[in-house]
Amino acid sequence: VFLIFTSISLSAISQGNDFELLKKINLNRNQNLDGFYKVITHSYSPISLAVPSVIFTVGIIKKDTSLKYKSYMIGGSLLISTALTVGLKYGIKRDRPFVTYPVIQNLVPAGSPSFPSGHTSMAFSTATSLSIAFPKWYVIAPSFLWASSVGYSRIHLGVHYPSDILIGAII
Questions:
Q1: Cβ contacts of residue 71 below 8 Å, gap of 6+?
Q2: Are 164 and 120 in contact (CB under 8 A)?
Q3: In the predicted structure, residue 12 carries a pLDDT above the cut 90
Q4: Residue 13: Cβ within 10 Å count
Q5: Which of 31, 101, 120, 124 has the most other CB atoms within 10 Å of its CB?
Q6: Which of 115, 110, 111, 124 is CA-nearest to residue 88?
Q7: What whole-number distance in Å separates Cα of residue 100 and Cα of residue 123?
Q8: Model pTM?
Q9: How far is C-alpha 170 from the geometric centre of its chain's CA atoms?
């Protein structure tokens, strides 16, 4: 509840700054990277769903209950973050930036409300739970690099405000 009220307050106070940062990133982006960021943005679901599935499968093959438990933890994290994100999206119903500000260049389809970013929430949930399950630098660094790239891609592609990304990552 505190997170919801804080995020709504911060969003209302900093709407102008939020839009200005989005505009700087989206309108001054390197268009040669548009294809790359489209791939990154669409990677959130396959990777987030594959991670617990692969870990569970390896746990079965190796008869390792610890790996199966870790897959349950990662999958549970995804379910909880998705439920929170969807609840906030439809509770707050913030319009997408390209709807409110037609100057923003929307490069991928986006149908649900903007706040918070579901792509970012799912990517950071995956990165965080994977890092807790396997606390090694070679798991943590690539996981959070990928999750951060997913979040950035949503701004680059014009479908989210920076505050959508921030709250999605926190969830």
A1: 52, 53, 55, 56, 59
A2: yes
A3: no
A4: 10
A5: 120
A6: 115
A7: 26
A8: 0.87
A9: 9
Amino acid (1-letter code) at residue 26: N
The pLDDT tens digits of the residues spanning 42-54 come to 999 999 999 999 9
Specify whether the CB–CB gap between 36 and 55 falls below 8 A. Answer: no
Quote the CA–CA distance of 167 and 11 in Å, as a whole number. 10
Phi first, then psi: what are they for 108, rounded to 5°?
A: -140, 155
pLDDT digits (tens, 9 = 90+) for 19-65: 888 889 888 889 999 999 999 999 999 999 999 999 999 999 999 99
Tokens 């982006």, located at residue: 29
**Around 68, how many Cα atoms within 13 Å sit in the side-chain half-sphere?**
8
Query: How crowded is the C-beta side of 155, counted as CA atoms within 13 Å?
Result: 22
- Which pLDDT does position 123 carry in this prediction? 97
Block residue for tokens 């804080």 = 6
Q: Are 75 and 126 in contact (CB under 8 A)?
A: no
